[in-house]
Amino acid sequence: MQQADLLEKAQLKTAAELAQCAAAEQQRQVQQQRQTDLEHELTSYLPQLQAFEDQAALETAIAQLTQQTATLTAAIQTQQQTIAELQVVQQKLVDSDAYQRQKQAQLNAEADIIGLAQDWLAKQLAIDWIQATLTAASQERFPRLLAKATQYFAILTQNRYIEITFEAATLTVLRQDQVLFEVGELSQGTAEQLYIALRFAFAEEIADVVSLPLLVDDGFVNFDDQRQAAVWQLLQNLSGAHQVIYLTANPRTEAAFGTEHWLNLEKVGLANDD
Predict the structure, then answer these.
(1) Are strands 214-217 and 244-247 parallel, antiparallel or unpaired?
(2) Model confidence at 18, in pLDDT bands (50, 70, 90)?
(3) Can you give the pTM of this predicted structure?
């Protein structure tokens, strides 16, 4: 269509007027689309907006939400500041001597736990050794060995325990009140007395095959006075048939064994301070 026809149809006189009219129409279409978009958005918000009686109520709600947002923003900033301060304190603790001391104390505690575990393992191995020794003993010698061990155990415990039995690969001891205990149920001191009784009985039982001296290197340091006196008496009894060499730092042994059987290594220049 020619420009003249367009001008005539639009009832316009110049091309400038035509261009101005076209721009106005384009602007109208943009505004119409915007109006359509706003109507769509308002449709989704309309139920919420209808909850307010008037514009004043809406503005009040907006003001309250704005205040709540500001309050929350301030709280977040405060928390962020607190976190930053705590991080600084944490870093100072890491760098301080107090933290290092606490860390060392933790390491010491862990070492103590390891030491206790090793002690427990040593005791458990001693129990296993007793069981293994009895299992390995020959059936011919075993009854005599068990009888001797029972005799020695009674001496060491001052007759508190009167019998040792070994059945189904399990060692048990009978107390004088007829209560039966497995090895693992005994106190450390009583278990050590049982261990000594079995070792002494074993040495005596195989003496006809090989005569072994009984060498004891301060082996009763964990015994109380009564237990020490009992084991000293047993050593004296065994010394009648076996050579007994007892090394100890306990000066009371001189009175227990007699001066003629007691040698002070320090006086003869053989003591070792290590």
Answers:
(1) parallel
(2) low
(3) 0.45
